[in-house]
Amino acid sequence: MRNQQTLAQAVTCSGTGLHSGQPAVITLRPAPPDTGVVFINKKDDANTSLQASIEHCVPTELCTAINGNGFHVKTIEHVLSALAGLEVDNAYIDVTGNEIPVMDGSAASFVRLIQSVGLISQDRKQPFLKIMAPIEVSEGSKRMRIEPSATPRITYSIQYDHPLISTQTYTYECSPRAFESQIAEARTFGFLHEVQALWARGLGKGGNLDNTVVLSKDGIVNESGLRFLNEFVRHKILDLIGDFSLLGTSFIGHIIAERSGHALHTRLVQQILEQPEKWVLLNTEPLAEESRPSLHHLARLQPVALQAL
Question: pLDDT by residue (tens digit) across 166-213?
């Protein structure tokens, strides 16, 4: 168990939105204990804030998005994955548009950005939601479950009718060091024959060979090749880490995903919150009135289960 962490100072990056193709700029800033991750709308100096929580998640094709308070921001999963993977619990993210920059299609750029300023420990304990009984969601052949485990871990399996992918399974033991070395560099991927269809739906307009692994019929188009032989399943884990951070707190459990995606990731988060009898909160302290809404929500759901270690 540990104390909460935030950035030591603000840091900015810019790029292109993967789906909109529009310029995108974000600034990551330190935030007080119990803030969580909060997006700030800087477009036209609106300064509208929106918590990165499952209650604000909205259905969006091929990415994760939140909406509320007149503010919509999408493709948030990679920056959220970097924050969660490095155990950054509290941060403000200033956004000038409606999409997070895709950078190189992975979380590596955000990891380097965060590491360039460093982290500071805060004087509040970081709560952990510990799974005590299995919780499962499914949709056809897609399945996800989270079950009790002594440590946070993720096992992900994918299957595609492509010779470079076929069936891939990977188990990730969650830690900042493992995230940086095993997950952060894995890039988003897509199929060449689907590109025009994506454009017709207004998606993928910012995608190119610098930020997406593009698969042809029997290989990949990128001359640089793959960063890992199983880069595809590692990127799915990267997405899951970002999506799962919408739970609003750290977790202790084993997530098992088969052929899953953003929609099922967030459905599992919703199911966890709807089944409070299957988890307990650990390492908690009395919540201040200004604490983040997600933790207030968890505390109201299960007051008898709060435990301090």
Answer: 999 999 999 999 999 999 999 999 998 887 777 777 778 899 999 999
Catalytic sites, residue numbers: 262
pTM, two decimals, is 0.92
Location of structure tokens 């941060």:
91
Please tell me the distance from the alpha carbon of residue 8 to that of residue 2, in angstroms, as a whole number: 17
β-bridge mates for residue 15, sequence order:
24
Residue bearing tokens 């289960």: 305
Domain 3-125: state its class.
alpha beta
How many C-beta neighbours within 10 Å does residue 138 have?
A: 14
**Strand 23-30 to strand 37-41: parallel, antiparallel, or no bridges (unpaired)?**
unpaired
Dist CA 7 CA 89 (whole Å): 9
d(CA 120, CA 122): 6
- Residue 192, sorted as left (phi over 0), alpha (psi -120 to 50) or beta, turns out to be alpha
CATH code of the domain made up of 129-277: 3.30.1700.10
What are the percentages of helix, strand and coil residues in the chain, rounded to 5?
30, 35, 40
